Automatic annotation (TrEMBL):
The family this protein is said to belong to: Belongs to the peptidase C1 family.
Name used for this protein in its record: Peptidase C1A papain C-terminal domain-containing protein
PROSITE patterns referenced in this protein's UniProt entry, alphabetically: THIOL_PROTEASE_CYS (PS00139), THIOL_PROTEASE_HIS (PS00639)
Coiled coil: 17-44
Gene Ontology biological process terms from the UniProt entry: proteolysis
Single Gene Ontology MF annotation: cysteine-type peptidase activity
Alphabetical list of Pfam families matching this protein: Peptidase_C1
All copies of domain Peptidase C1A papain C-terminal, residue ranges: 113-257
Cross-referenced SMART domains: Pept_C1
């Protein structure tokens, strides 16, 4: 049975995860019919994208022998231009804040300490999250203040990326439990939008930095130390959580694994 969709300008932006069962089933049936008619074209296009991703992995591995790369990730079917645009859109939405809250990785390089430091072993760094399709890398990078609070008090706060993404938190940050993150792919958020602001002092701690990530090295990175990364224009915000005197360890917001 076909289900009629009310496709207004607003409804056209609706997420598939919010559809009721009958609507989803109807959409799946239409997708199956479309695949039956255009399957050869679709398969060829997807195979080409997978092949391009595999070649990209080979190129990244050649220039970075101390790192491992894998095309099997949620960016595998994105072309190079599409991935670069995905990264750039996320970065651009926080451009007016970065001058205040983000230090560049180049500036931090000059002050690398001879002794190693890894904040991920301190119990003061929250787990890696996935920003989803919402362009908010800078909000995940900027809530490092929770780590600062933990270093000073021993209590790890999970601060609200969503508040940065929507309101930019000019006067303090809410706890994540009071203001849970809303991915652009679902549009769903928690009911409570109020909290007591936390006054957090910044000290020696993880630091928000910018990098150039709209390239095949970042797209396919799996583990290890990257020594050569194409480009020199910052387009992504991450959290530097450690260094060993010659390299940085950073926490990204594209999910674990």
């Amino acid at each position: 049975m076909r289900v009629a969709f009310a496709l207004s300008a607003l409804a056209a932006k609706q997420s598939v995860v919010s559809l009721i069962a009958d609507e989803r089933l109807s959409l799946e049936q239409e997708l199956a019919e479309w695949k039956a008619e255009f399957r050869d074209e679709q398969v060829d296009a997807e195979l080409q994208r997978i092949l391009d991703s595999k070649f990209s992995v080979e190129g990244a591995a050649l220039t970075n022998p101390d790192a491992t790369f894998d095309w099997r990730n949620h960016f595998a079917l994105l072309s190079n231009d599409e991935f670069k645009k995905y990264v750039a859109v996320s970065f651009g939405r926080g451009s007016h804040l970065r001058g205040e809250i983000i230090d560049t990785l180049e500036d931090e390089t000059a002050s690398l300490q001879a002794t190693s430091k890894d904040w991920t072993t301190s119990g003061c760094v929250n787990a890696v999250q996935n920003q989803g399709s919402c362009g908010s890398c800078w909000s995940f990078s900027s809530v490092c203040h929770g780590s600062v609070h933990c270093i000073k008090t021993g209590t790890l706060l999970k601060l609200a990326e969503q508040q940065y993404a929507i309101h930019y938190a000019a006067s303090g940050l809410c706890l994540s439990s009071a203001y849970p993150y809303t991915s652009g792919s679902t549009g769903q958020t928690g009911a409570c939008k109020s909290c007591t602001k936390q006054a957090l002092a910044i000290g020696s701690s993880p630091v928000s930095v910018t990098v150039e990530a709209g390239n095949n090295v970042w797209k396919n990175y799996k583990s290890g130390v990257v020594s050569v990364c194409p480009g020199s224009q910052s387009d992504h915000a991450v959290l530097a959580v450690g260094n060993d005197g010659s390299s940085f360890k950073v926490k990204n917001s594209w999910g674990g694994g």
